[in-house]
């Protein structure tokens, strides 16, 4: 097997972050977990990652801001944004800013894995 | 005619001026003959300023919540009440213009007025300031929306972890551990359903002003529900049949009606162990309304419970029924939603034999030219 793909998991809910990360590791990915927007931006710009799962509502910088700053630098990086359905405007905005896919919370980790595989595959 | 009405009014003005709701009375041409103290307070206009004017003289500039003008149109609720001689059954929420230029939300009730001999002599509008109430409703809706997120997130996380444990992803588990984890998983799912029901109630209760009034294809709505519920019924070993007349249409709120009918059909399946569940919808020419029946061959509802069954949180007190789970808000929601669409629900039930819920909804058959392609 070739080198593991690295997924950046940006999610401020520790329970969900660990769950997603654990599941992705089980699926054979390497994971970088971050818990706020600043860390997410930093990792997205400086680490060699294959994709991001990006929560929208996060402290310091929200997912939208992170996406705005990452896109010009890494236009092809697959991004799956996560948000609650009641904030679907955020999701539309994220898609306009170049997110590749979105998941509405709550979801089961296997659904996210599926989405990630899709965006990684199409890349 | 006017003289008769004026005499009545002068008798009643003492009473009208004591009540907190705005009241005004017009002749059949909607010319204002009386305007009580509360009306002065709510609108800023004194009785002197408005007497003799037509309410359609753009005084209050009533609009619906979407901002569509109602005054001087056939949509004017008072005009409708007088010309169709029909009282409002539920208060309408409209916006009115205060003398100071502010928009106020008012709840209005209207009725035609008759002389003792039964002659139409005018109309009455009773209104109250609903701004605070609506503000409260909006706050409540926001609260439920954030509560929904706060409650569902940890539940979904727990379910995710349980799935990992059960799949052995965190190491092998023994049979007893598997049994206990499965129990936790099921209990958690139950909790999730209860939360969902309570949140539904929060979403559907009270926020009447936010009802949509869109032209909607009821045939399509019912058919898609029939599709999704037939699988559930068949899984339970029940016969599921549906017969829905084409082109049934009405003005209403699709999401809420869908919820109401889901609750009725879902209940029918839930409380039926064997036999059949059927859904039928027809347009009744005679009554000019749509009649939808949801019929099951289930456990039925004891007569003493039939009246109370639509009350919030009501559950039939029966050991067997309790074991079905649920919070008792389903029928409550259904009745509220149907009521808000000007309809009603009737029920007929024989314990042990089954239950039929019949919904009567004002509606129509879409003209062939409007049929979607």
Question: What key attributes describe this structure?
Answer:
heterodimer, A: 123 residues, alpha/beta, Rossmann fold, five-stranded parallel sheet, 21% strand, globular, B: 373 residues, alpha+beta, Beta-Lactamase, Heat Shock Protein 90, 3 domains, 11 helices, 41% helix, elongated
Q: What are the SSEs and their pairings?
A:
The complex is a heterodimer of chains A (123) and B (373).
Chain A: E1 6-10, H1 14-26, E2 30-34, H2 37-46, E3 51-55, H3 63-70, E4 79-84, H4 88-96, E5 101-105, H5 109-121
Parallel strand pairs in A: 1-2, 1-3, 3-4, 4-5
Chain B: H1 2-16, E1 22-26, E2 32-35, H2 37-43, H3 47-50, H4 77-83, E3 92-97, E4 103-114, E5 120-129, H5 131-166, H6 175-204, E6 214-217, H7 218-235, E7 239-244, E8 248-252, H8 254-270, E9 276-284, E10 289-296, H9 303-306, H10 319-322, H11 330-340, E11 344-350, E12 354-362, E13 364-365
Parallel strand pairs in B: 7-9
Antiparallel strand pairs in B: 1-2, 1-5, 3-4, 4-5, 6-8, 8-13, 9-10, 10-12, 11-12
Describe the protein's architecture and organization.
- The complex is a heterodimer of chains A (123) and B (373).
- Chain A is α/β, with parallel strands linked by helices.
- Chain A is 43% helix and 21% strand.
- The mean pLDDT of chain A is 91.
- With 373 residues, chain B is of the alpha+beta class.
- Chain B folds into three domains: 2-129, Beta-Lactamase (2-Layer Sandwich); 131-210; 211-373, Heat Shock Protein 90 (2-Layer Sandwich).
- Chain B has a five-stranded antiparallel β-sheet with strand order 2-1-5-4-3.
- The longest helix of chain B has 36 residues, at 131-166.
- The termini of chain B are far apart.
- The model of chain B has no long low-confidence stretch (mean pLDDT 84).
- The A-B interface holds A 13, 15-16, 19, 22-23, 26, 84, 86, 105-110 and B 145, 148-149, 152-157, 159-161, 163-164, 169.
């Amino acid at each position: 097997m070739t080198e593991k793909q690295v997924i950046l998991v940006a999610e401020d809910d520790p329970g969900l972050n660990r769950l997603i990360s654990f599941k992705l590791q089980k699926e054979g990915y390497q994971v970088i977990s971050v818990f706020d927007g600043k860390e997410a931006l930093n990792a997205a710009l400086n680490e060699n990652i294959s994709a991001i799962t990006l929560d929208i509502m996060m402290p310091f910088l929200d997912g939208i801001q992170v996406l705005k700053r990452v896109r010009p630098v890494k236009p092809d990086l697959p991004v799956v944004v996560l948000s609650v359905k009641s904030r679907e405007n955020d999701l539309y905005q994220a898609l306009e800013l170049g997110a590749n896919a979105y998941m509405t919370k709550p979801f089961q980790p296997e659904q996210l894995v599926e989405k990630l595989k899709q965006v990684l595959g199409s890349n | 005619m006017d003289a008769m009405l004026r005499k009545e009014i002068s008798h009643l003005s003492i009473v009208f001026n004591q009540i907190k709701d705005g009241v005004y009375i017009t002749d059949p041409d909607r010319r204002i003959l009386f305007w009580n103290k509360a009306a002065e307070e709510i609108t800023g206009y004194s009785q002197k300023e408005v007497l003799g004017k037509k309410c359609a003289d753009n005084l209050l500039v009533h609009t619906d919540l979407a901002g569509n003008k109602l005054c001087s149109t056939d949509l004017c609720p008072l005009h409708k009440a007088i010309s169709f001689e029909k009282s409002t059954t539920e208060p309408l929420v409209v916006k009115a213009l205060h003398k100071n230029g502010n928009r106020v939300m008012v709840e209005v009730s209207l009725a035609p007025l008759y002389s003792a001999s039964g002659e139409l002599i005018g109309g009455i509008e009773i209104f109250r300031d609903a701004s605070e109430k609506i503000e409260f409703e909006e706050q409540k809706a926001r609260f439920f929306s954030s509560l929904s997120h706060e409650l569902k997130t940890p539940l979904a996380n727990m379910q995710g972890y349980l799935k990992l444990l059960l799949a052995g992803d965190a190491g092998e588990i023994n049979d007893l551990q598997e049994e206990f984890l499965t129990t936790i998983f099921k209990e958690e799912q139950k909790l999730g359903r209860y939360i969902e029901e309570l949140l539904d109630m929060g979403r559907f209760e009270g926020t009447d002003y936010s009802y949509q009034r869109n032209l909607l294809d009821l045939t399509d709505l019912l058919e898609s529900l029939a599709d999704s519920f037939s699988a559930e019924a068949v899984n339970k070993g029940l016969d599921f049949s549906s017969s829905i007349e084409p082109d049934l249409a009405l003005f209403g709120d699709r999401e809420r009606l869908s919820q109401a009918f889901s609750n009725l059909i879902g209940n029918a399946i839930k409380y039926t162990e064997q036999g059949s569940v059927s859904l039928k919808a027809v347009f009744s020419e005679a009554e000019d309304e749509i009649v939808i029946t949801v019929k099951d061959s289930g456990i039925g509802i004891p007569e003493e419970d039939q009246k109370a069954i639509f009350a919030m949180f009501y559950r039939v007190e029966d050991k067997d029924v309790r074991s079905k789970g649920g919070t008792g808000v389903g029928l409550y929601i259904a009745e509220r939603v149907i009521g808000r669409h000007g309809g009603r629900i009737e029920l007929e039930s024989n314990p042990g034999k089954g239950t039929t819920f019949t919904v009567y909804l004002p509606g129509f058959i879409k003209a062939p030219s409007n049929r979607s392609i």
